[in-house]
């Protein structure tokens, strides 16, 4: 994720953060399930106050662009139907699980393909 804050811009910094994350999520640069930096971490990297980034995150959550999952972090939310959101959530959980298990991307994708073939062959 790349964000740039322009001090001379008429838009306040929190709005610049909100707009850039929103655009990157909408365009797919930030995929569904992408874990965003912590408020403090992003504030530090951008040279902003933590409250500024927190305000942007709150606005993004209100807009449905991101979702906070407690201590697990803040993620780009799924857009679209409830089924698509549930599928994206399941995919995110699967990705986290196979990573913890030490599987590589190819092995994880092979497992998904096999499971899909079996499910749709019924």
- Beta-strand content: 5-15%
Helix content, binned percent: 55-70%
How many whole angstroms does the radius of gyration measure? 17 Å
| Overall pLDDT level | 90
Strand order of the largest sheet: 1-3-2
N→C terminal distance: 41 Å
Assembly type = single chain
The profile of the biggest β sheet is: 3 strands, antiparallel
How many strand segments? 3
Strand pairing plus helix content: what structural class? Answer: mainly alpha
Ranges with pLDDT <50 over ≥5 residues?
none
**Number of alpha- plus pi-helical segments:** 5
Question: How do the SSEs run, as a string of H and E?
Answer: HEHHEEHH
| Inertia-based shape | elongated
Account of the protein in words:
60% of the residues lie in helices and 7% in strands. The protein is mainly alpha-helical. The radius of gyration is 17 Å and the shape is elongated.
Give a short synopsis of this structure.
The chain has helices at 13-27, 39-46, 50-62, 82-101, 105-121, and strands spanning 35-36, 66-68, 74-76. By secondary structure, the protein is mainly α. A hairpin with a 5-residue loop joins strand 2 and strand 3.
Secondary-structure blueprint:
Blueprint: H1 13-27, E1 35-36, H2 39-46, H3 50-62, E2 66-68, E3 74-76, H4 82-101, H5 105-121
Antiparallel strand pairs: 1-3, 2-3
Helix pairs in contact: 1-3, 2-3
